[in-house]
Amino acid sequence: MKKTGFSLMEMIVVIVIIGLVAAFAIPNYHKTIVKTTLKSCLDELNLVHGSQKLYRIENGNYFPEWGDGDATWAQMKVALGLELLPQDDVTYSCLDTGNNQTFDCRATGNANLGNFVAQVTHAPLSATNPACISNCP
Asked: Where do the structural domains in the chain lie, given as residue ranges?
């Protein structure tokens, strides 16, 4: 009689191997997604920094103007002339610093991304501006 098919032991070995691969791959995949999203946010904050500098040259102050309150991503796109698309699970804002000569713009990742906060300020671009300031992966 000719044997066709797999034995129970062969099937169990294959399922255990697949389970082990998944156990190591899935957490690393999530960490990679979080790091990639943070890097993308920092890149976009670099663009916000440059746009803020141009906005100050044209208007004499940074956006948002003192007393206008914090600005949303939609308001930032219009005022700063940005054509960036918002990312899922990330909220962008520019805080009203109470001073037209400074700015503080942030990208905040939600719980799916570990609640990180990335920030860019009026200071010159460097290794610490923009940077992740809270819950960094």
From this structure: 9-134
